[in-house]
Design a protein that fits this description.
176 residues; alpha/beta; two-stranded antiparallel ribbon; 12% strand
């Protein structure tokens, strides 16, 4: 398999009109609280140091499948964590009714899927619909807590799905 490296920012990756799919062979979302907080602290440190500073998040290896889908070969943990963070940021803009930034951050989090005629998460993970539910919560205008929202829609949070909720909550507390 041949790879051609592209120097893209996360914004460049997520501003495209593409969905990214986590293949079944990928491991579960397993980032620990420490890893999630480290990413947050690194981003904040770099923004406070120099907002024009380029921060290297690591490589993402993306492969286009024969059916045109973008498959995440490497970088799933970081991409999932970033999506949880961006979802939180979008939610904060919704709370203050900042329409420009709501639209801008929503574009990073979700796209309209013409195949199923609905808006869905940029990162598709068939093994974990919890990610889709969290992102839908992030772009909604509900006042309920995430756990209450998930309960209201009948989402059962098993041990593996709990990592997504924990990641969301860590970013939520960090932003506050």
């Amino acid at each position: 398999m041949e790879f051609t490296p592209l120097g893209l920012s996360v914004g460049g990756l997520l501003q495209s009109e593409k969905f990214y799919k986590i293949p079944k062979y990928q491991r579960d979302y397993v980032w620990t609280d420490k890893k999630i907080k480290d990413l947050w602290n690194d981003i904040i440190f770099n923004l406070q140091t120099d907002e024009n500073l380029k921060y290297f998040l690591g490589s993402f290896i993306i492969k286009t499948s024969p059916d045109g889908k973008e498959i995440v070969v490497d970088g799933q943990q970081r991409l999932t964590s970033l999506l949880l963070l961006l979802g939180n940021i979008c939610r904060e803009y919704i709370k203050i009714n900042d329409e420009f930034n709501i639209d801008y951050t929503k574009k990073y989090c979700v796209l309209g899927d013409t195949e199923i005629q609905k808006v869905r998460s940029r990162l598709l993970n068939d093994d974990y619909p919890i990610l889709e539910y969290i992102i839908q919560y992030c772009i909604s205008n509900t006042d309920s807590a995430l756990e209450d929202y998930l309960e209201d829609i009948g989402c059962d949070i098993d041990k593996k799905s709990k990592r997504f909720v924990i990641g969301y909550n860590i970013y939520n507390e960090s932003i506050k």
